Amino acid sequence: MTSGGVQDGSSVPDEEWERFLRESEEGVPDAPKEPSARARIVTRRLREETGPPQGWRAPPPAPPRKRLRYVVGLLAAAALLFVALDPGRVTGWFDGDDGADAGPLATETGRPSAPPAGAAGQGTLQEPFRGSPAARWADGVAGIGVPAARATGWMGTAQVARALERTRDFLVASSLDPKVLRGARPSRAIAFVNPLQPKERESLDTSLASPSRTRNPLALFSRFDTDRVRLVGDVVKTRGRLTFREGERGALEVTSDVTYVYPVVRAEPGSDEVVRVIVRRETVVSWDDPARIDTEAGTFSVVRTSLDTTNAGCRTYTGFLTPAFGSAGRQDGPTADPYDRSRPVRDAAGAGGDAECGTATRS
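Request: output the structure for the sequence above.
Response:
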């Protein structure tokens, strides 16, 4: 470029050149202006928003997902609180008739706070526990909970564990052994009782040979007269637990609180009316210190027993559990739920004791 406005060989009149310089400094009146960066941002934001404009002092709304999580968490907390306050009712929502579809119950570790949910129903040969809370109970020995051992009294931890195991073995031999259930002498169970305490063995022998109100073998043993009834299948449902503490003279005192459910029919061929006999026993035994009490290793002394039965015979002294069928069905004890393990055992002085005969709410 040269002076005088000459550029690349072409010339521009002086008047045009001066006007160009003036408009460059002052700007063209109608020329479009470039929007600022802030204006461009505001414009883009307005285009993206679909709702009404928000006040500049209003708090930002919570994202929908966070609100949903808050509501779900609140409802979950309320549901957990309801379950904690009334677990039996919630279980009943899913149990249907007997709760069998809800799956087996965990082993009992303490006394429940309420009876199990569910209505009463009639069992069948194919499903003898149908319509009963026992449908969700464990089979046989699996339903008897055993606590962790610890050194107690004269016994160390390993000795306590062994005593708990042998106490449970006694319950199997006295209340679950198929031969004993069919009327055989419970010899293996009797072998657990200390032979060096002769009155105990003598009392057991007398109760089996000549049962009576004061000497009732059903206080310890479950037996049926096979001339009258037969068991349905090989499964006995159980629910219960063992507990222990230090007893007199440093002995280990073990308490068993177990409910047994036995389905039976009449002994006649072709019988198909299934009824259930429910037996709840609380038995306290003492594993005595041989340094203080004459005792044979591996045996215990019976401290006391409590018995509560349903449809086992009322004020009968045959030495057998005696169920009734049909319209003759009459369940012993006052009106009560035989599956309610939240209450203490009601000692009816055996399945034929002095308690008033009545009707159970379900069987």
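Confidence is low (pLDDT under 50) at residues 1-10, 86-97, 349-354.
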